[in-house]
């Protein structure tokens, strides 16, 4: 085989090899982009869930503060007007409440502990925030 035919065969083989390399690089790049898009979707979902938890915490803090102001852990009896307005605010998303939200405060006369329970639901399921308050 002469030198010219040998070099022609080598060039032909490298053309196809380069095309395969490019296709594999495009495949790897596409998988990376799809992974980044999936991560972005999960990040958005986590941000919304954290916002809901923060609102639930602030609503519970608002109730606990009112209990301290009234010097009573039995807020439903001590200030029923505030309690009913608070429950309405918890269930109204346009007033810093939660979508599908409900808020309850239960008071134990034996332990003197109030339990604040805020529940809400969204496209990711049902969630709740629970805290307890003791007013000496």
Structure explained in plain terms:
Strands 1-2-3 form a 3-stranded antiparallel β-sheet. By secondary structure, it is of the alpha+beta class. The protein has 3 helices and 3 strands. The protein has one domain. It is rod-shaped. Helix 1 runs antiparallel to helix 3 (80-90).
Q: Which stretches are poorly predicted, pLDDT < 50 over at least 5 residues?
A: none
Q: Work out the oligomeric state of the chains in this entry.
A: single chain
Figure out the total of helices. 3
Cα separation of the termini:
102 Å
Number of strand elements:
3
> What amount of the residues lies in strands?
15-25%
Number of domains: 1
SSE run = HHHEEE
Structural class: alpha+beta
Largest pleated sheet: 3 strands, antiparallel
- Give the strand order, joined by hyphens, for the main sheet: 1-2-3
Percent helix: 55-70%
What is the radius of gyration computed over CA atoms, rounded to a whole number of angstroms? 31 Å
């Amino acid at each position: 085989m002469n030198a010219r035919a040998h070099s022609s065969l080598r060039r032909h083989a490298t053309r196809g090899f380069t095309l395969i390399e490019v296709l594999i690089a495009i495949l790897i790049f596409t998988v990376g982009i799809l992974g980044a898009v999936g991560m972005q979707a999960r990040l958005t979902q986590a941000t919304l869930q954290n916002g809901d938890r923060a609102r639930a915490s602030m609503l519970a803090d608002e109730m606990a503060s009112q209990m301290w102001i009234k010097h009573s852990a039995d807020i439903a009896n001590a200030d029923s007007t505030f309690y009913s307005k608070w429950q309405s605010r918890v269930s109204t998303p346009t007033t810093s409440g939660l979508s599908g939200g409900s808020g309850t405060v239960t008071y134990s006369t034996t332990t003197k502990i109030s339990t604040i329970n805020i529940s809400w639901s969204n496209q990711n399921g049902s969630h709740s925030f629970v805290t307890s308050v003791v007013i000496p």
